[in-house]
Every structure is written in structure tokens, then in C-alpha cells.
Amino acid sequence: MASTEIARQAGEGARAVPLAGHVGFDSMPDQLVNKSVNHGFCFNILCVGETGLGKSTLMDTLFNTKFEGEPTQHNQPGVTLKSNTYELQESNVRLKLTVVNTVGFGDQINKEDSYKSIVEFIDAQFEAYLQEELKIKRTLHSYHDTRIHACLYFIAPTGHSLKSLDLVTMKKLDSKVNIIPIVAKSDAISKSELAKFKIKITSELVSNGVQIYQFPTDDESVAEINSTMNDAAPCREECVQSSTVSQLTLQEACSVGKGL
Ligand SMILES: Nc1nc2c(ncn2[C@@H]2O[C@H](COP(=O)(O)OP(=O)(O)OP(=O)(O)O)[C@@H](O)[C@H]2O)c(=O)[nH]1
Ligand SMILES: [Mg+2]
């Protein structure tokens, strides 16, 4: 209804407030986008893999940034987790990125407990979020959610089969995080070996009942690309996707550097 019409109905001398812009429910998507962009995005990645498999290199490539961090020595007494949070910005989109790396994974002679510190870390983040949710006065909008969105699991390019450590760790983690297995340094083996290796890994994961992340195919607009991604798993190298980061950003990320 035009403002003059409103003034006429409201009577003489009524104040008519002119509209600042278009009003209608067709502006709702824009409102949601503006709200999300203003608030910024939060994404937490857990990189699990043996020392020197290229975890830091992949993160640097994916986010086109040089993150701090020194290479780890192979003489760590146990597995620890190192978490770093960065504020990134690409055009007007802000991303609060938390990268959690395993330190000393696979370096011990007795690897029986290697998965424990990772499981404990993931559980601690769930617990922290639960405690925030349980508060009478919750501040979830400003709370830094540190729960892991995606776990990139780096598999050594042996060309043979999965190590017991990999199977045990993935099995322990699969009910807690979205696992995206990645064959690290896949340029170290030939294409035919790589194809066989991927088949072998897939069959081992299936026979051991390890659930890896499946890209959703119920949304028609992304069903085709996502089923291609599902078929490509475990990713040859740096193909990363998660349920939380936007499809587009991730598809771009996947094509960075080494690609599918
Ligand atoms: N051939 C090959 N080398 C790689 C690849 N990615 C990383 N590297 C090399 O592997 C070495 C170790 O890479 P990093 O990214 O530091 O590995 P990391 O897993 O972060 O190592 P830590 O943090 O010490 O556990 C570096 O010299 C990299 O240049 C790859 O895809 N192929
Ligand atoms: Mg590193």
C-alpha cells in the first residue's frame, strides 16, 4: 500500500513513514545472506595423519594462506593435538577457521592408544558445547563452537593396504565426526597403483564397517556433483568437502593445487 493511501486512511495530520526500500517476503533470502555474512562463518577441521604426510601443506593450499607451524619431530612420546584458530577473509566473507593437527601420530612403537587423545579431544568439544547449551543464560550466538565439522584422514601412499592404526582410529572416530579419507602424497605412486590402492582401501573400509562421510545426494541441485564426489572417495589427494562449508567454496577448494 502506498504511503499516501495510508495517510488518507489514518486521517489528516497522521505521520506517514516513507519506506526505506522494497518490502516483501521475496527479500527474505537476501536478509538471510546479509545476516550470515555479517555474522561470519565458523569452520573447524581436524587433520589426522602420520607425521610428515602433508597435513600443513594441504591446509595452506586449501585456504591459500601460510599458516604458522613447524614440522614435528618423529620422537614424540605420545599423540597430542594442536589447535590453532585463524580469522580469514575472502572479499567480504569472514571465516573463523580452526585447524586441529595431530602431533606425533603413528610415531610410537606401541600405537595402541594413539586414537585416544583424538577421541578425548572431540568429546571435550562436545562437552564444552553441551555445557554452554545447558546454561540458563545461553550466549550461543557469540559462543565459539569448537566442535569438529570435518576430519581429514591422511592415508600413507603405501600402495598396499590400510594400516591397523588407520582402521582402528577411523573406526573409533566415525561415529563422532565426518571422516574424509585422503590418500596423501598420491604423486608418490603411479596412477594404476593408485587406482588399485583406492579400491583396496574402499573394500577394507566397507569390510570393517567404517563409515566415511557421504556427500548428500537428496538435494537435486547438488546431487550430481555430490555423487561424483562420493564415487571419488577416498580422495586422491586434496579433495575436501563437508556438510557445513558452502558447496561452492568447497568445490573451489577441491580444485586447488592437486585436484581430484
Ligand atoms: N610429493 C609430495 N610431497 C608433499 C606433498 N604434500 C606435502 N609434501 C611435502 O612433505 C613434507 C611434509 O609436509 P608437511 O605439510 O609439513 O607435513 P605435515 O603432515 O604437516 O607434517 P607434521 O606437521 O610434521 O606432522 C614437505 O616437505 C612437503 O613439501 C604432496 O602432495 N606430495
Ligand atoms: Mg604440519
UniProtKB/TrEMBL annotation:
Give any GO molecular function from the UniProt entry. Answer: GTP binding
Which PROSITE patterns does its entry note? G_SEPTIN (PS51719)
Please give the Gene3D superfamilies that the UniProt record associates with this protein.
Answer: P-loop containing nucleotide triphosphate hydrolases
Q: Which UniProt keywords apply?
A: GTP-binding, Nucleotide-binding
Q: In which domain of life is the source organism classified?
A: Eukaryota
> What InterPro entries does the annotation carry?
G_SEPTIN_dom, P-loop_NTPase, Septin
Q: Which SUPFAM superfamilies match?
A: P-loop containing nucleoside triphosphate hydrolases
Asked if Nucleotide-binding is a keyword of the record, the answer is yes
Pfam families in the cross-refs: Septin
Septin-type G domain mapped to chain residues: 39-260
PANTHER family given for it?
SEPTIN
* The protein's name: Septin-type G domain-containing protein
**Species the sequence originates in:** Etheostoma spectabile (orangethroat darter)
